[in-house]
Write a structure and sequence with these properties.
The chain has 10 helices and 13 strands. The chain is an alpha+beta fold and 466 residues long. Helix 1 runs parallel beside helix 6. The chain is rod-shaped, with a radius of gyration of 61 Å. The relative contact order is 0.06.
């Protein structure tokens, strides 16, 4: 019997040992499942796009619920190791906001466990946290002070719960690391979202500025188009007025009908639509012709207005005075007397042609006009043909220049009058605006011949003659 009792007792002891082992294994498995649940909960927390405070709260509550903890929370590690509570979940019975002493070196490890304070460092940290058995993990944040994540029990409750082992410390450190990455990613996401928002606001402002600027440019372009249209209308009105003025100026020029004893041609081309030049040809008697050329100072409209006055004053005296020099003196005297305050400076040339048998006599007076030119082309052509040579017509000046008209009334104005004899078929050319000195330019003379083929026999080559 004794042996049977002993055997039964040993079997009972063995069964109890196995039961304890199974219980420990179940607790260990439950602990692993709890840590796994916390890890899965952290993944769900990460995908919920919560604020940092909400993440601290949910993470702490998941630790307390899964691992049957008394307390879990987050503290900031400030300057000089000062611990400041950020969030405390569960039941905290102690702890104080103060600077750490020897525990500062302990936190530099980054993670650890304490089942009961055994040295100054763990006692300092346990006193500051208000916990006796606990795990901790330090998170270095990008956007602020470091965080200390803790979980555990105070001294009174620690006796009712199993101690933390290295597996618990390793799992807590692993979850803490994932939490650190999560918080870092959240910070980067917030920065990216902030930058995106700033860029969107900048883009919106830029689009508004572009739209406003486009509107301003469109309005400016419209105003410029209106202004350009107005300028074109004004320009067209000016051109129309100038065309009418040109037509009027052309109307005051004489019609060069054929004269029985002389052939007269004219070429009139102002520098602009209107100009300060005009001429007149009239017949004083059957054999007496008068040619008058004048050039008012300036160009364009102002000079054209002066030609009207000059033409009117010339018409008053052209049939009344018999010789060119007296005509120019009377013409000048009238200008000075009637228009003393206006600028009526002009040049002029008056030339009388008196036809006689076998030729003509020319009387002329010149007031600063280019010299009158005589062509002996017909005579030279006859001589050249007789000798079988090419025709080379020549030109010669009849008169030098004298002072322009419009002198002071108290001054005596003297115009030199000269005369010359012309053979039959001689040509006289009165020009203005082609040359600037008394030496006739060859090219100008050749073009004159080309422009008046009915006056001269072929262009030929013209030499410079005084």
């Amino acid at each position: 019997m004794a042996d049977e009792e002993r055997l039964l007792k040993e079997k009972a002891m063995l069964l109890m040992a196995r039961e304890r082992e199974l219980t420990a294994l179940r607790k260990k498995q439950d602990r692993s499942d709890a840590w796994l649940a916390v890890a899965h909960g952290l993944a769900e927390i990460a995908s919920a796009r919560l604020s940092p405070a909400e993440i601290y709260q949910q993470f702490s509550e998941s630790l307390i619920s899964a691992l049957q903890l008394q307390a879990a929370g987050f503290h900031e590690i400030g300057g000089e190791g000062k611990l400041t509570a950020v969030l405390r979940a569960g039941h905290w019975t102690g702890g104080a906001e103060r600077a750490l002493g020897s525990a500062r070196a302990l936190l530099d490890r980054g993670a650890g466990l304490c089942n009961a304070p055994t040295d100054d460092a763990t006692r300092d940290l346990a006193d500051a946290l208000g916990l006796w058995r606990f795990l901790w993990y330090r998170i270095e944040r990008i956007d602020g002070p470091s965080l200390l994540v803790t979980m555990g029990y105070d001294q009174e409750r620690s006796g009712f719960y199993a101690v933390f082992d290295e597996n618990d410390a390793a799992r807590f450190a692993s979850i803490g690391h994932h939490l650190k990455v999560l918080l870092g990613n959240m910070h980067l996401v917030r920065e990216l979202e902030s930058d995106k928002r700033i860029l969107q606001e900048f883009n919106l402002a830029l689009e508004q500025r572009v739209a406003e600027r486009t509107k301003e440019l469109a309005e400016t372009n419209r105003q410029l188009a209106d202004l350009l249209g107005a300028l074109r209308e004004k320009e067209q009105r000016i051109i129309d007025d100038l065309e009418q003025a040109r037509a009027f100026q052309q109307s005051i020029l004489p019609t060069l009908a054929g004269f029985p004893r002389a052939l007269v041609h004219a070429y009139f081309r102002p520098l602009e639509l209107v100009g300060g030049d005009f001429y007149d040809v009239c017949q004083l008697s059957d054999k007496h012709f008068r040619i008058f050329v004048a050039d008012a100072t300036g160009h364009g409209v102002q000079a054209a207005m002066r030609t009207i006055v000059l033409k009117a004053e010339y018409d008053r005296v052209k049939f009344e005075i018999g010789n060119p020099s007296a005509l120019l003196e009377a013409f000048n005297r009238n200008l000075v007397t009637l228009y003393s305050r206006s600028e009526m400076l002009c040049t002029a040339c008056c030339l009388d042609v008196i036809v006689k048998d076998g030729g003509a006599r020319v009387r002329y007076a010149n007031a600063a006009q280019p010299p009158v030119i005589r062509s002996r082309a017909a005579l030279e052509r006859a001589a050249a043909e007789a000798h079988g040579a090419d025709v080379k017509p020549t030109f010669a000046h009849l008169a030098a220049r004298h002072d322009a008209l419009r002198r002071a009334p108290e001054d005596r104005y003297v115009v030199a009058e000269r005369s010359a004899k012309l053979a039959n078929q001689s040509r006289l050319v009165v020009v203005d605006g082609t040359v600037k000195n008394d030496r006739l330019d060859c090219l100008v003379a050749e073009r004159m011949l080309e422009g008046f083929p009915h006056l001269f026999a072929g262009p030929g080559r013209i030499g410079q003659l005084r």
